[in-house]
Write a structure and sequence with these properties.
alpha/beta, Rossmann fold, eight-stranded mixed beta sheet, two-stranded antiparallel sheet, 7 helices
Length: about 180
């Protein structure tokens, strides 16, 4: 096999909208489940990535119930489970790049949460490392974001705007191809 599905941070903690704020793309989990089913049926490698936040009080902290994977992902026996505490799946345990290289895997399909954070960071890094990267945008989701930016002031983006921005940057920057889940099924 030269292609793997990388499922990033599909964890119950992201259902806590009081913590994360408004979200978009309610079909994300169903689309991720469809990709998992397809990869499993074809016997292609599935990599599950879990964010283990070092911050006490985070819904993704290992001691929090939100650290658990959502049902569709928890039901999978992955080829490898990568635990990380930063945005890129390439900085986790076990080391993702080593695992991929040992198996000759060069094509990656990356999905999960958050579109503009861990999915985008992993896709950018994979592209820079020479992998052929595909992101089914409708198998990702994120949350509205507001913050102070030096020299700009307060900036706000909706989840939908952030997803569109990520798709544009990944595709036009040459990091990844953006597709729909149905294109991969």
């Amino acid at each position: 096999m030269t292609r793997a599905l990388i499922v990033i941070d599909m964890q119950r903690g992201f259902d806590d909208l009081a913590f994360w704020g408004p979200t978009t793309n309610p079909d994300c989990e169903a689309n991720v489940a469809a990709l998992i089913e397809r990869w499993g049926r074809e016997g292609e490698p599935i990599v599950i990535v879990r964010h283990d936040s070092p911050k006490e009080g985070s819904p993704l902290h290992p001691s929090a119930p939100g650290n658990a994977l959502v049902t569709a992902v928890a039901a999978v026996e992955p080829d490898v489970l990568v635990s990380k505490s930063v945005n890129s799946a390439f900085y986790g345990d076990p080391h993702l790049q080593t695992w991929l290289e040992e198996r000759g895997i060069r094509d990656l399909v990356i999905c999960g949460i958050q579109t503009n954070m861990c999915v985008e960071t992993t896709a950018r890094m994979a592209g820079n490392l020479g992998y052929d990267v595909t992101v089914p945008l409708d198998a990702t989701r994120t949350f509205d974001l507001t913050g102070e930016v030096a020299g700009v002031g307060t900036v706000s983006r909706t989840a939908a705007e952030l997803m569109a921005d990520t798709a544009l940057v990944l595709q036009q920057g040459g990091f990844a191809r953006i597709v729909r889940t149905e294109d991969l099924l």
